[in-house]
């Protein structure tokens, strides 16, 4: 039988192995292409990556409560691994100890910190200027300003005039503190120091042109847009590239306790708490047993003492308020035709004006609050003291003292200086008469010693015994 041969029936040598290899390679390529396409499709339909931006607000005077709020906010940002902390600032300045506390936490923050002076017309003055320059990113909105950071020495609520040597010492200390972080931040320490030595202030354009801030942004969204992908140098020298493609703002608000305490340390609130505390305690002392005024007055007095610990209180203002209280009491006791009352009102108004005075903010008790609180306080104090004085002339309505001046009937004949018995208010009492009185004669009680009544015949003129 002849073997049939042909082109299709003949396989080159080694074709089987090559075919298997090519098949496996093709399948692998197809799988790789399928995987790439699947990943691209998944990325196309997956939600965009977001970055948390913890937002804090530094508004008003820099004081211990605000410093605590900043500390807690920076700690919260670290715990949630936020991409950035944004501090929106509008402050006239404040206490140096609170400022240094805030800067210390900004420099130690593991999360980059941006301080943004906003909105338009906001300022980062005095202590706020230091805080602005201490941040990883310093930014300002159009129409804002910063600077005027000269230290002010306050004693008893007044800015003090000090000698030139002492002033140089304070300024040099402040400048060294400012240089300690502005140089590390790559900013302009020489020009920044003029905010201390010459009390200079700078607009946002001046600050940017002179390399004291990093950028100008019209809004927080514009700020984050400019920061996205920007590489910054941290205080420890490390480099960080900010990834803020889709930022999510996470507001960090003051707690209820902090809001309450922040309200207390306002000068107007402090003045009202002080007056309520004094008036409540005064009412309790002059009218024992009323209870409620003493309770509320005591609470308000303690809250006022807490605020006094934080505020720059001028003790001359306190003395003027206490002097006003004395004038109101004297007005109730003596006829002065209103002179003492007028003096008390004037003294309390002056005390309110002097009570709290911060040269950083020119803030203090407002004239409207001073007038609204002084007049009712004066009226209530005079009214309560007159009630006290009148009550001393009133006859006792309870106890044995109510028998003084009352008439009784001699149960038996009373001899002068010898104890006998009388009936009064349906009760029998031992009594000693100053004059003889026959049985059944009316007698009047003149005084009481223990359980013994001293009487005299009712028809005789009453003798006053003091």
Description:
This protein has three domains: 51-255, Alpha-Beta Complex (2-enoyl-CoA Hydratase, Chain A, domain 1), CATH 3.90.226.10; 265-391, no CATH class; 400-457, Nucleic acid-binding proteins (OB fold (Dihydrolipoamide Acetyltransferase, E2P)). Helix content is 47%, strand content 18%. The chain has 14 helices and 18 strands. It has helices spanning 15-45, 64-79, 96-108, 127-134, 164-182, 189-197, 204-209, 220-227, 256-264, 267-286, 292-310, 315-333, 339-355, 367-391; strands at 51-59, 84-90, 113-117, 123-125, 137-140, 145-147, 154-155, 158-159, 201-203, 215-216, 231-233, 239-241, 247-251, 407-410, 419-424, 427-433, 442-449, 452-457. The chain has a six-stranded parallel sheet, with helices on both faces. The chain has a five-stranded mixed barrel with strand order 14-15-16-18-17. The longest helix has 31 residues, at 15-45. It is elongated, with a radius of gyration of 43 Å. The model is unreliable at 1-15, 41-48, 155-160 and 461-466 (pLDDT under 50).
């Amino acid at each position: 039988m002849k073997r049939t041969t042909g082109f299709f029936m003949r396989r080159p040598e080694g074709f089987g192995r090559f075919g298997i290899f090519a098949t496996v390679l093709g399948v692998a390529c197809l799988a790789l292409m399928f995987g790439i396409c699947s990943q691209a499709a998944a990325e196309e339909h997956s939600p965009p990556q977001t970055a948390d931006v913890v937002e804090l607000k530094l508004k008003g005077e820099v004081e211990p409560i605000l410093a605590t709020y900043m500390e807690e906010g920076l700690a919260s940002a670290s715990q949630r691994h936020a991409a950035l902390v944004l501090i929106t600032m509008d402050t006239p300045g404040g206490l140096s100890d609170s400022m240094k506390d805030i800067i210390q936490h900004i420099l130690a923050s593991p999360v980059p910190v941006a301080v943004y002076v906003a909105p338009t017309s906001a300022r980062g003055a005095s202590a706020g200027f230091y805080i602005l320059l201490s941040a990883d990113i310093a930014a300002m909105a159009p129409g804002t300003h910063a600077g005027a950071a000269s230290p002010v020495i306050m004693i008893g609520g007044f800015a003090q005039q000090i000698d030139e040597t002492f002033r140089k010492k304070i300024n040099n200390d402040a400048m060294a503190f400012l240089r300690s972080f502005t140089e590390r931040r790559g900013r302009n320490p020489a020009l920044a120091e003029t905010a201390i030595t010459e009390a200079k202030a700078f607009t946002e354009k001046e600050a940017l042109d002179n390399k004291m801030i990093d950028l100008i942004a019209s809004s927080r969204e514009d700020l984050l847009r400019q920061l996205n992908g920007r590489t910054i140098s941290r205080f420890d020298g490390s480099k960080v590239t900010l990834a803020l493609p889709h930022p999510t703002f996470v507001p960090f608000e003051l707690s209820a306790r902090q809001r309450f305490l922040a309200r207390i340390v306002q000068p107007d609130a402090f003045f009202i708490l002080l007056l309520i505390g004094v008036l409540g305690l005064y009412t309790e002392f002059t009218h024992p047993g009323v209870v409620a005024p003493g309770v509320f007055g005591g609470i308000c007095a303690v809250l006022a003492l807490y605020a006094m610990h934080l505020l720059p209180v001028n003790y001359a203002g306190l003395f003027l308020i206490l002097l006003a209280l004395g004038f109101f009491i004297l007005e109730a006791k003596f006829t002065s035709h209103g002179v003492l009352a007028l003096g008390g009102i004037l003294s309390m108004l002056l005390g309110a004006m002097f009570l709290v005075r911060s040269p950083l903010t020119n803030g203090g008790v407002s004239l409207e609050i001073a007038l609204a609180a002084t007049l009712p306080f004066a009226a209530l104090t005079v009214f309560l003291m007159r009630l006290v004085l009148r009550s001393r002339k009133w006859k006792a309505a309870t106890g044995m003292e109510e028998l003084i001046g009352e008439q009784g009937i001699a149960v038996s004949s009373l001899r002068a200086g010898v104890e006998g018995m009388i009936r009064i208010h349906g009760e029998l009492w031992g009594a000693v008469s100053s004059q003889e009185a026959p049985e059944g004669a009316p007698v009047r009680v003149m005084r009481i010693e223990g359980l013994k009544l001293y009487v005299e015949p009712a028809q005789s003129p009453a003798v006053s015994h003091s």
